[in-house]
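Notes, p. 3: input format for complexes.
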Amino acid sequence: MRAVFVGAAMVFAMSIPAISGPSGGSHGSDHGAGHGMDHSAMMTAGMPGNKAEARRAIRVKMKETDDGEMIFTPNSFNVKKGETVRIKISNRGELEHEFVLDTRENNQIHKELMAKRPDENAHQMPNAITLQPGEKGEIVWTFSNAGEFEFACLILGHYESGMFGTASVS
Ligand SMILES: [Cu+2]
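Output follows (170 residues plus copper (II) ion):
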C-alpha cells in the first residue's frame, strides 16, 4: 500500500512543486481538495491510533532552558513498527509550544511556510498539538512505517533553538 501524504503536506506540496517525497507519495494533482483532509488516512509517519490499542505511554516535556535553548525531553524515543502509543506531551515552559510529528522533510517544508505566514500557527492536524504554558495534551499515534521521524516545534525560531527530536521506528 502506498503511503499518501495528507493534510498540510498536500497543501505545501501544491505551493512548492519541487518537493518530491522519498516515499513515493502521490503529491500534487490527484488528491483533489486538500482541505477536505481525511484524518483517518495514513501519513508517512503513521496514522492516528486507537487509544484502546495503546500499550504504553511516552511522556515528552517541552520547555525553555536557562541558557536560551528550547527543548523536548526526551529528544528521542523508540517504537516498534506497527505499535500504537499514547504520546503525552506537557508544556513546562513559559511560552507556547507545539509538537508536530512528521517526516523531517515535511517538517522543514511546514516550518518554512510558517515562517512566511506566522498567523497560521494553529494546527488542526492529528499529528500535531499546540500547548500553552502549563497545558498538557496527548496524541495517540500508530507508527505504521519503519524509519526515523521527527517531532518538532515549528513556531518561528523554536526549531533553531533546539526544539526537535527523533522518533525511531523499527
Ligand atoms: Cu516551541
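The chain has two helices and ten strands.
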